[in-house]
Specification:
The protein is of the alpha+beta class. The protein has a single domain, classed as Nucleoside Triphosphate Pyrophosphohydrolase (Alpha-Beta Complex), CATH 3.90.79.10. Helices cover about 15% and strands about 35% of the residues. It has two helices and seven strands. The strands form two sheets. Strands 4-1-6-5 form a four-stranded mixed β-sheet, sandwiched between helices. A three-stranded antiparallel β-sheet has the order 3-2-7, with no helix packed on it. Strand 2 and strand 3 form a beta hairpin. The termini are far apart.
Length: about 140
């Protein structure tokens, strides 16, 4: 285990799962911050975990959905994007042929598909992330 005399940011991963009906899978947060708001499925990376494996694990824990290949989209690291502490998130995405059956788990209160053009109010900077994803990947 390494120890350092200076603070370090937390690293998270988030999944953008898009169906062929142009819907995105979101979870309703069951804990603060942003309890009750919708967000992309994701969470903290463990010390011995590859980023893509962490994203698959978090997606399965929070929605019950397993995916194969994930592609890396971008990293987001604005200083105040998470009210708890400095957090850097790496975003991954995948496409599905249909809206897979999702069941909320872990710290997700609900898991639900939403049309990309009709999103609820989103936690963190997930609205910005999805807007940039639509502009760059779904153009």
């Amino acid at each position: 285990m390494y120890t350092y005399p200076y603070p370090r940011p937390a690293v998270t991963v988030d999944a953008i799962l898009i169906s062929n009906q142009q819907s995105v899978l979101l979870i309703e947060r069951g804990r603060e911050p942003f309890k009750g708001k919708w967000a992309l499925p994701g969470g903290f990376v463990e010390l011995d975990e590859e980023l893509d494996k962490a994203c698959r694990r978090e997606l399965e824990e929070e929605t019950g959905i397993r995916v194969g290949e994930l592609k890396q989209f971008r990293a987001y690291g604005a200083v105040n994007r998470d009210p708890r502490h400095r957090t850097i998130s790496v975003l991954f995405y995948a496409f599905t042929d249909h809206e897979l059956l999702a069941s909320a788990g872990d710290d997700a209160a609900k898991a639900q598909w939403f049309p990309l053009h009709q999103l609820p109010e989103l936690a963190f900077d997930h609205q910005q992330i999805l807007e940039e994803f639509k502009a760059e990947i779904l153009k």
